Amino acid sequence: GAGVSQSPSNKVTEKGKDVELRCDPISGHTALYWYRQRLGQGLEFLIYFQGNSAPDKSGLPSDRFSAERTGESVSTLTIQRTQQEDSAVYLCASSFGTGNQPQHFGDGTRLSIL
Amino acid sequence: AQTVTQSQPEMSVQEAETVTLSCTYDTSENNYYLFWYKQPPSRQMILVIRQEAYKQQNATENRFSVNFQKAAKSFSLKISDSQLGDTAMYFCAFMKLSGGSNYKLTFGKGTLLTVNP
After folding, report:
1. Full set of structural domains in chain A with CATH
2. What percent of chain A has pLDDT over 90?
3. Strand ranges, E, within A16-105
4. CB pair distance less than 8 Å for B102 and A100
5. Which of A76, A102, B78, B88 would be a feasible disulfide site paired with B40, CB 3.0-4.6 Å?
6. Which residue out of B43, B51, B61, B95 would a mutagenesis test of the A interface target, given it has the greatest number of A Cβ atoms within 10 Å?
7. Which domain does B13 fall in, by range?
8. CATH number, domain with residue B83
9. A33-69: pLDDT as tens digits
10. Within an 8 Å CB–CB cutoff, is residue A92 touching chain B?
């Protein structure tokens, strides 16, 4: 597709379950980002992938959060043993390189933990 | 560390009028970008306009323009001839250009703009 694609669009799960969120970046974009947006807040940086370089995981809030990306393709964000405070919209973005290259965002996954 | 502050949680404007959204930031960096993103109910973040800090000329994109005051660390967005489709959350964001982490966007908390018919 032409844009960043994220799935699922919405996810409701029980506290303690694991969830996996998917992001399909724009073809050719080497950089991929995950952000979290809590209700009424701006976006918080979670993790950054650039090509085959080691990812910047400095924004991950706890060891329950992890993310993977194979090459320059799809990325998955996994949250283990979900807690209610994990409820948020998780947004993925990609860009053609970094620096002055704009980040293009997907529509996000709204995660609700019961 | 950088911080971005949007002091107006909500604003409203009548269709066809002009509105200005405020943003201030704090940084010790000299080379950076500033952005305004729009987030309609669809949730997708859409880039509205961006400004390179080294450029003195204010950026413009059709009905959208910025007032960039580097010394004051202020970056306001002016929307002219407001349209109903401009109704959205607007986020101001900062990104440094040099050194490590020159890819992280730091966002403000947003301003909800409602355009009334």
Report:
1. 5-108 (2.60.40.10)
2. 79
3. 19-24, 31-37, 43-50, 65-69, 75-79, 88-95, 104-105
4. no
5. B88
6. B43
7. 3-99+106-116
8. 2.60.40.10
9. 999 999 888 899 999 999 888 899 999 999 999 999 9
10. no
